Write the structure tokens for this entry.
Amino acid sequence: MTAAPEPVEYVYGIESEHWEGNDDIWVPTRPVALRVTKKTARRIYYVRPGSGPERIGFVDRQKLETDGFVNRAGGWWEIDLRVHREPPVLAEQEPDLAELKAAMAAAHPDRGGTDAEFITARANFERARTAMRSQT
């Protein structure tokens, strides 16, 4: 009788937003699963992302299990700069003012929208513009 295969475990990193190809494909910030290869009492070993031969990284198991994440030394572009126990929840992307302004213009009653749609679109635009001004 064959034994059931062991479940695959993962830790998680965050891939920074960047352009790919000939700067024609935008990749937003996203969580990336890193396959765990081995667990010991002190460390968790995982497959580091990248092309070429498989590279193994490790983090302190106790710190990961108590804090939920471990910061590693490395460059900001490295996916495993901060390793998380659970998939990280990313902050919502800031709204694009140009898109909100275009939506507000499209919802205007002179262009076939309703008063309620325009009021909602304008409130969204004003809220985003105020938030953006308060950050600077």
